[in-house]
Design goal:
Blueprint lengths: L4 H8 L1 E5 L6 H10 L5 E5 L2 H14 L4 E4 L14 E5 H7 L10 E4 L11 H5 L3 E6 L4 H7 L3 H6 L1
Parallel strand pairs: 1-6, 2-4, 2-5, 3-4, 5-6
Length: 154
């Protein structure tokens, strides 16, 4: 089935992308975000996912990329990069340092985790969102989609 991710994203302001592990979710969202205007915030909960997203943005786009995690910050006085990739935990603590219009789009990797309270503020901070999951299990469908947070993303 062919999906028009950018068209869906513009029409609904949110999308849940379900692709099996290893099928290119990262590449799909990187290419989609590169074609759409506005700064992107990417949230992930593991360094591996953060490093993977950063590498893909650098390989596939001409966008500037920064990481907001532990000892790394994009808030160093220089202009914000086009893409900020952040750990959920760090962004939750530092979100108040950003302005509401700093990000136009958010990507939540492993979106089934969005039910956790640490995602509430960062997700609410952005106007448009894409959630990524490897499998849409019954548990994911019934609980995640019904959450107030994912109603913004699905």
């Amino acid at each position: 089935m062919k999906v028009n991710l950018i068209g869906d994203f513009n029409q609904f302001q949110s999308t849940l992308l379900v692709c099996a592990t290893g099928t290119g979710k990262t590449q799909i969202f990187v290419e989609a975000m590169a074609r759409m205007p506005g700064r992107t915030l990417v949230l992930a909960h593991r360094r591996e996912l953060i490093d993977q997203a950063k590498a893909r943005f650098e390989q596939l786009t001409g966008l500037s990329v920064g990481v907001e995690m532990a000892g790394q910050t994009v808030l160093d006085g220089s202009p914000l990069p086009d893409v900020v990739i952040a750990s959920v935990q760090t962004m939750q603590r530092r979100l108040q340092k950003f302005k509401p219009d700093d990000f136009g789009k958010i990507v939540v990797d492993e979106a089934h985790r969005i039910l956790g309270g640490s995602y509430t503020a960062p997700v609410a901070f952005c106007l448009h969102g894409i959630g990524l999951v490897a499998t849409e299990s019954e548990d994911c469908s019934c609980h995640t989609k019904r959450s107030l947070l994912l109603e913004r993303l699905v």
